[in-house]
Amino acid sequence: MDLVRLIYTSTITEQFDIEDIARILKVARLNNKTLNVTGLLSFNRQFFLQCLEGTRQNVNQIYHKIATDPRHKRPEIIAYQAISKREFDSWNMGYLQNTESLRELFYQHTRSINFDPYKMNEESAKSLLLDIRDEIKRAEAQ
User: Fold this and answer.
1) What is the mean pLDDT of residues 16-41?
2) Band of residue 44 on the pLDDT scale cut at 50, 70, 90
3) Which of 16, 90, 106, 126 is the most buried (most CB within 10 A)?
4) Could you tell me the CA-to-CA distances from 62 to 38, 48, 114 in Å, in that order?
5) Hey, which bits of the chain come out as E strands?
6) Which has the closest alpha carbon to 109: 120, 94, 98, 97?
7) Are strands 94-96 and 38-43 parallel, antiparallel or unpaired?
8) Range 14-23, long-range pairs (CB < 8 A, 24+ positions)
9) How far apart are CA 57 and CA 13, in angstroms?
10) What is the pLDDT of residue 45?
11) Is 75 exposed, middle or buried (0-12, 13-18, 19+ CB in 10 A)?
12) What is the dihedral of CA 97, 99, 105, 108, to 10 degrees?
């Protein structure tokens, strides 16, 4: 099976309500499970940074829905590449809430208190998402 990894960022719109994050996660986990897509979502109350992994067709299908969702604006693909294995295979959609540990990870990877994923390149975005993945796994183990 040919796999791809897509990392994108977007900004919330005025239509976004803070309860939308729970709805987005619920729908994403259900749809991603059906399509065998795995990934991780990061959200800091202004920006989304997300990774999707799966077949090209399924990842593209999900990203198209995201890019046309009225709760997102300025969707921008940071990375899109063929992969030999998944890095985020533990979840249909992993998520770390906007906690102090997440803010610390944002700072470690951007050296700014004002997290802006639009300024990240492929390497830095993937590295941040991998560190978020590891933080989630640590929290789940406790």
Assistant:
1) 91
2) confident
3) 106
4) 11, 15, 28
5) 3-12, 38-43, 47-55, 72-83, 94-96
6) 120
7) parallel
8) 15/70, 15/71, 16/71, 18/45, 20/71
9) 27
10) 83
11) middle
12) 150
Mean pLDDT of the residues in the chain: 91
Q: Is 23 in contact with 34 (CB distance < 8 Å)?
A: no
Domain map of the chain by residue range? 3-141
CA distance 65 to 39: 16
Q: Report how far apart, in Å, the C-alpha atoms of 113 and of each of 91, 92, 116 are.
A: 28, 29, 9
Closest CA to 93 of 134, 37, 136, 15: 37
Q: Is the dihedral of CA 21, 6, 12, 35 positive or negative?
A: negative
Which residues does 141 contact at the CB level (< 8 Å), separation at least 6? none
Instruction: Kindly tell me if the per-residue pLDDT of 42 is higher than 70.
Output: yes
* Contact residues for 115 (Cβ-Cβ < 8 A; gap 6+): 44, 46, 47, 103, 106, 107
